Amino acid sequence: MLYWLTQQLAAQETFFNVFQYLTLRTILAVVSALAISWLIGPAMIRWLSRYQVGQVVRDDGPQTHLKKAGTPTMGGTLTIVAIAVSTLLWADLTNRYVWIVLGVLVLCGLVGFYDDYLKLVVKNPRGLAARWKYFWLSVAGFGAALVLWYTASSPNETTFFVPVFKSVALPMGMFAFVVLTYLMIVGMSNAVNLTDGLDGLAIMPAVMVAVGLGIFAWASGNAIYAPYLGIPAVPGAGELAIFCGALAGAGLGFLWFNTYPAQVFMGDVGALALGGALGVVAVIVRQEIVVLLMGGIF
Fold it and tell me: Which contacts of 157-164 are long-range, i.e. CB under 8 A and separated by 24 or more positions?
């Protein structure tokens, strides 16, 4: 939104041309997401506490975890809001990749939100049945995969690249591309969810992976640096650097409230959303293997 506004103002005042630079908008996305997290975080934590949306700790786990009972959960909603608002402010909203990633973020977040709602509000300890959780995550994964396939405009967008081996590039048909994309989105979503667990361990690995992906996105979208660095050039992928920057800023903002003693936990709403978003970014910038290696952190 602000990016569009600066484009209009640039016609009247050349100073606003500075906002055309992707690096500046990425920095602004980081700062905006961090500020949004800090501003709305305390109010959201109070709201969650008021309605007793607190963590339930199993009595067969470590005794040291029992003191965590009652800590507000579903704090991942804060992260999703900060990422979405910051991305909408600074990204080019005519870029299809921006909407695809935001769509996966929101859809996976809704699945996690409903699961948390059942566990924490309805007091159903099982939450959303596993089959339904995987079904709706699969809808998001297959949906994103099909959109990416049918909107691809260059061979690089559907080719499997192997890092280090510059000459290894395997063109994929529709079936292979859709399956790989699906596995990346759903697999990363569940990987982050499993890592997060009770202690909220996933937020910093997610931030670090987002920073790495942001660098790849910036380079992939640059027609000069992509060939020089030996990575696939994907037109338009540079805008995802703004999304990754927003994720990093929102993650650091959430960490402010999640550090010991934790005021809030992420919950499935945040973990599933962040994992799914990182998975689809990895597919777009053609760095699936790199993310799997980085995902060893998870």
Answer: 157/234, 157/284, 157/286, 159/232, 159/286, 160/286, 160/288, 161/231, 161/232, 161/286, 161/287, 162/289, 163/287, 163/289, 163/290
